[in-house]
Amino acid sequence: MTSDARAWLYIAPAAVLLLLVGGIPLAINAYHxxxxxxxxxxxxxxxxxWYVSILTSERFYDSLMRSLLFSTVVICxxxxxxxxxxxxxxxxxxxxxxxxxLLAVPLVVPWNMIPAIWLxxxxxxxxxxxxxxxxxxxxxxxxxxxxxxxxxxxxxxTWHWVGLVAILACSGLxxxxxxxxxxxxxxxxxxxxxxxxxxxxxxxxxxxMALLLRFMDSFMIYTEAFGINAGGPSGATTxxxxxxxxxxxxxxxxxxxxxxxxxxxxxLLIVHAFWRLLSARREDAV
Amino acid sequence: MTLKRIxxxxxxxxxxxxILLPLVQVIVLSFLSTLxxxxxxxxxxxxxxxANIFRTDRLVASFLxxxxxxxxxxxxxxxxxxxxxxxxxxxxxxxxxxTFFALLAFRVTPPVVLSLPAFLLFAQIELLNTPVxxxxxxxxxxxxxxxxxxxxxxxxxxxxxxxxxxxxxYSTPGFIIKHLIPVIAPGIGAAAFFCFMFSWVExxxxxxxxxxxxxxxxxxxxxxxxxxxxxxxxxxxxxxSLVPGLVMIWFVRNHLSRGFTVRV
Lengths: 286, 264
Hints:
The complex is a heterodimer.
Chain A: H1 3-32, E1 35-37, E2 43-45, H2 49-55, H3 58-88, H4 93-104, H5 113-121, H6 128-135, H7 146-174, H8 178-186, H9 191-219, H10 223-229, H11 240-249, H12 253-285
Antiparallel strand pairs in A: 1-2
Chain B: H1 2-30, H2 48-55, H3 57-90, H4 96-107, H5 111-124, H6 131-155, H7 159-167, H8 172-183, H9 185-201, H10 204-208, H11 217-222, H12 231-258
Helix pairs in contact in B: 1-12, 2-12, 3-6, 3-9, 4-6, 6-9, 7-8, 9-12
């Protein structure tokens, strides 16, 4: 058997499974996006009409900008913070174990409970932070002030996900052989140089994984954002996925399918750009 | 040096408070009566919320449903991901990187995008309202991640291990089961943790694919919100929903801290 055929034999189970549960639904979506659908038996060909109407609507571009901004802010906050945490954790002992456990806990909270938890936390009557805000008379109104809604969303998302960045970075750091650090100490490298020339290159893989996961989950944030303010105030937190959710709830299957195809294409395009950029780096390094 | 230690301790404390505060609030509320009950007036300390969970069949059933589909999903994901990861790590084949990226594309497919057609597809093959259906759907985002993590670990194993086993007469599958799996156990632990995590907390697929039966814990919690929400009960459910995750974290804590190099 050739090497190629053997590789494909081993990849086949995963590939078949993914095509079945991911590929077929994507294909169904693409097909439905060209129809006006009243029921599955009763649908009319409309061609690219849905695409034209979505791509020419101002609302789409507004939501796209908001989603891009949200992902950018979230990544800019969570990556430095996660890296800082990973670099400050001791390399062994109970503090490290405890730290890792702590960081992992928010990751296992069901997503629909996260907004509920945070809303209860800032509730002025029963919430720990809410009572503080009232006591110190800090003006905070997440319902009607868009900036405050955004702050709440970013803080909540950071609470939820900074652990993922930190854990992946930590695992990457632990994989660096002590010899590298010894060599750096002999060369009297500064802390910054150690980070820049030893740690960062070794972390590229772990950070790429974190970046892809964080980008994709923040770009398509739905459950958490909807739970906080249902896209408000006046659409200030209406992200791409909230528009899609609205269409699905209204049973507009045709437009929803077209929208899905567009979202999938955008996400894939951006992720592919990241991937190309980071892979190119690898080839220079090796 | 002392300043650095003080800063470090302060930072660690700040992080602990930031992470734990919301959870402490959840746990405190779960032991409070937040609606007026006959046996427990509003605001009193009580175990009533937990008692109510165990008295409500659909809430208990939701735990069972979630546990079943998450376990099925982790098992299925690892079974298909391990050979694929081995192929990526060991067989140099044409278009390996393109294939790898194609697999990753499934991880970046938003569940909201797939939920509707997945519902139509699963209705056709009669996999709605069963844990099997949800377990299969969750493979879309878990299989790619598992392959990625396992591939990194397998690449870290010296090729000599494979070659010695083949000289001893092992076939490739035999070698994977007998020799490779014990060596990459930390990787399997880490992959299982990530699969567990993404499956346990996922809402959109789990809700869409279970309309009449087999409802997961996330749907059960959502259904508690209404005109007069018993927040205490919601928080008790949330507290219990953390337990399996905490157990999982406890088991893999050493695997996570031992470290691995992810390859791009």
